[in-house]
Amino acid sequence: MISLILPTMGTREKEVRRLFESLNNQTFNKFELIIISQDNHSFIEKALLEVNFKYKHIKTERKGLSNARNIGIQYAVGDLVTFTDDDCWYAKNSLFTVWDIFQKYNNDIVCFQHIDPSSNEFPKRYPVEIQNNISKKRILQQSSIDIFINMKKVSKKSIKFDTRFGLGALYNSGEENILLMELKKKGYKIDYYPIIISYHPNKIQKKKKSIDSITFISKGPLFKRLFGKLNGLFFYLLFYIKKFKLIESPFSSLMLGIKEYRNFKIGDYNEK
What is the pTM of this model? Predict the structure, then answer.
């Protein structure tokens, strides 16, 4: 069985119904959806009346994407686990395709692809060939909805998001990259297959600047968390040089980013 973990604020009503409909239409029916609603619980309850698949609905007032995913993991009983979004959806053969690959190759972890069907564009440059045991650099390019984890091989205790990162947290992104990096350090193999599994609208980029100051500043703690104090600073400065023309107020952003980098404590993570 596959467990799909869905955190939601319950505000994207049209998108949630689209996701549920795509799951209703799956050719593979051995899955469960674990919904962690952080608001608008009544809408989720109502929408769930229209589904034909197994689900668990957990209500919480605790906000934050990573918090919700950590809660959902505790309820997962599937052989495979993945992390879905309330504005993504699936082709009817998606879950069967994933299940078939794991049955054939018994992978530890596999990352796939997602695409925006309205523009027919990928959100990033995906490799065109299968990659076994992907590099740390490749881990930086992965999205949470692309990840599937084999729970028969990966310890549930190892699947824990750093709640300082992700939507609704102190730093607004990078939680899935941290998770994959931690799993790689523990010796789990992360493979990549160039197969589209899900659909998701691409983020709209600003015309002149595509990296706002807050996002750039948050990259400092992310790189420090991923690579350590010295290597993290090197990669942060490299990112700054590479993206200089795209960063809002680049000089002041760098000064603030370095300050945040210095103040961030790698070992301070303690979910409460």
Answer: 0.93
